[in-house]
Amino acid sequence: MKTKSNIDLQLEYLKLKSASYDHVTGIPVTNIFYKDLVKLLDRKNRVACFLITMVNGGEIEKGLSFELYDKLLAEISKEIVEALKALGIREYMLASSAPGGETFFAFVVEDPPEIVINTDFIENTKTALNDRLTAKFSGFIKSENLPILVPYILVLGKKLEGTATIRGERQLSRELDSLRVEVARISETAEYDKRILIKRMIDSRAVQIVFQPIVNAKEKTVFGYEALARGVDGQEFHDPETFLSLAQKYDMLKEIESVCVMNALDTLFKALKGNKKMINKKLFINLSPPSFPVLLSDEFTQALKEYGLSPNQIVIELTEKFSSTVPHENEVYFDIIKRISKQGGFEIAVDDVGTGYSTLERIAALNPQYIKYDRVLFKNVYRDPLKQELLKTILDFSRKINSHLIVEGVDNNQDYDFAIKLGVQYMQGFLFGRPLRFTR
């Protein structure tokens, strides 16, 4: 029989360790404690089991990136330990449900007279864990450009007690499974509640619009406004990233984007009614490809007539964040927007150029009136030679296809001066004003 080398043994050890410990939090996985817990149940000891999980983990990770989500989970595991210590619980087993998972199990063994596992102990510990974790992680922000992402941390508790008629390992397995089933049930209820809230937003048209100016830097005048959707103050979903993503998930994206479009028209042009200097400004409206038909709706057409607007005052910003994941469908969408803009007389802007799905070839085929250069690529361009060359390339390209380049993210004088010297005419950013709320 061949003797295993030292390297083979080390590799086996590393494999065993990686399967036994969560690489995100560094804590053991549940299997490590299984034999100890089974022995306790076989001896008829009482054990309190607490499950702590992130119900909306998928949404949080999508919004933050997995690196930041890993840090959040690691912080939660540390906070669980601190919460148990604050309760005077010194002896416990804290485990992850699986390597890289977002569910934790905390097991506390009865140790009279200090710890007596009964209903009061379970409920008090659940409440303390929930209150501490909720207070600690009530908001989690990646940057000023992302929403406040609120973790929905769920804490469940159960008393485990061995019996003479049930094998301990099966009892433990059943009890843990029952907790997981309860989590799934609560998660489904939470999803249903979110779906109802999105439907209510649509039915009540509860989307408010703010407007960020787009300036003609050479003429030093306001050229137009970009309409930006926000949830109504006080409602659960205030950030557009959140409610638009949920609307897409529940097949209600067209409906909520229609509300955004109509509210933008209604808010801006009622506010500016009678102001001759402002009434001829462009209105830039973000729209995902599946929602383009709203531009041909009777409601939209009637609104243009009511406000005395020409269709070419409306610029549709083509957003690809909510496009189809099927390439063929995106080709169809591009064809639709070209035909709708031509039929309705609207103008087109391609948003986030430089970072999104659109290639220069695709943009040229679409032939938009405006190209919006992404703020991330423009930020601090004055001191970054690579960014400068990329901006020059896009500016030259826009001129060749007779499109106007609009640079986003102009937030400081140095970037502004560089763009002016380069010949950029249209700009948008905090240097000219933050999004404004108009009253109707």
- Secondary structure tally, helices: 14
Topology order in helix (H) and strand (E) letters = HHEHHEEHEHEEHHEHEHEHEHHEHE
Overall average residue pLDDT: 83
Q: Give the C-level CATH assignment of the largest domain.
A: Alpha Beta
- What is the domain total for the residues? 2
Question: Major β-sheet, in short?
Answer: 8 strands, mixed, barrel
The Cα radius of gyration reads 28 Å
Q: CATH topology of the largest domain, which one? A: TIM Barrel
CATH architecture annotation of the largest domain: Alpha-Beta Barrel
How would you characterize this protein structure?
The protein is α/β, with parallel strands linked by helices. 46% of the residues lie in helices and 18% in strands. α3 crosses α4 (66-86) and α4 packs across α5. Mean pLDDT is 83; it is low at 11-18 and 142-147. The protein has 2 domains: 15-195, Reverse transcriptase/Diguanylate cyclase domain (Alpha-Beta Plaits, 2-Layer Sandwich), CATH 3.30.70; 204-428, EAL domain (TIM Barrel, Alpha-Beta Barrel), CATH 3.20.20. β8, α10 (327-344) and β9 (347-353) form a beta-alpha-beta unit. It has helices at 6-20, 31-42, 57-64, 66-86, 119-136, 168-203, 240-249, 253-271, 298-306, 327-344, 360-366, 375-378, 385-400, 413-422; strands at 46-54, 93-96, 103-109, 153-161, 207-216, 221-231, 282-287, 314-318, 347-353, 370-373, 404-408, 426-428. The termini are far apart. The chain has an 8-stranded mixed barrel with strand order 5-6-7-8-9-10-11-12. It is built from 14 helices and 12 strands.
